[in-house]
Amino acid sequence: MTPRGELLAPPRMSATVVRLFVQICLVIYLWRGLYANTESSAGLDETQAVGYAVLAVLANRICGLDRQAGRDMVIQHLRFGTIVYWYLRPMKPQRYYALRALGDQLYGFGWVLAGYVLCLAVGVVPPPASPSVAGVFAVSMLLGQLVLYYVMMLVDLLCFWTLRNEAALLILVFAQNLLSGVYAPLWYFPDWFITLSSFLPFQATLSVPLSIYVGRIEVADAFGQLAVQAVWVVLLALLTRRLWDLAGRRVVSQGG
């Protein structure tokens, strides 16, 4: 329903186009300026760094749908009491949540595909080095989106145990973007920061697949990263399944 609301609101569609265009232009000029006096840094040359940054902007759009305007955020449903309908329907709330997220990601993927084709045509993003790189990147990207789905689900499930957690949500979203490599590739950070992030699921969402695409992670070394992504998917799936059961015990239907 939220993507449909966007499609029926032309100003929001045009705003998305302008925002993506401005973000892509800014990261292109930023990274080209940073590489004006050097050919390589952190194992990346200018083409790889610019390609990574542009792909990060596009990939961040997959789950960038604004649900707040449509009053469709979990925290809003909890505040208004409409979350009870998720538990009164014949469909389990976690299944409804999954179908809703799938619709969001398909809508966001349309934006990403259009932007990727355009950036590829103008030479801003380099094509995959080989079919094997493209295949491994596709698998890693799929696993990364699954990890991101469960991470964002944990953020939403947190709302069941807190009364006002807008600040906590903003902090968690910031941490997700920082530790996943949205703002900058993790290869530029200190070794201790990279080591710390390796114990968290965030870099499995975006940093790993984009590093495979630009060639910072070779195909031969990528299968270990794919295994780590798969492990995170399983662990987060089990954790969120348990949390959905606990969250359901906190929902009370009155007068109906």
Please provide a written account of the structure.
This protein has helices spanning 2-7, 10-34, 46-59, 74-80, 84-88, 93-122, 131-158, 166-179, 191-198, 207-214, 219-248, and strands at residues 40-41, 44-45. It starts with a helix and ends in an 8-residue tail after the last helix. The chain is 68% helix and 2% strand. The mean pLDDT is 86. It contains 11 helices and 2 strands; from the N terminus they run H-H-E-E-H-H-H-H-H-H-H-H-H. Strand 1 (40-41) and strand 2 (44-45) form a beta hairpin. Helix 2 packs antiparallel against helix 3 (46-59), helix 3 packs antiparallel against helix 6 and helix 7 runs antiparallel to helix 10 (207-214). The chain has a two-stranded antiparallel sheet with strand order 1-2. The longest helix has 30 residues, at 93-122. With 256 residues, it is mainly alpha-helical.
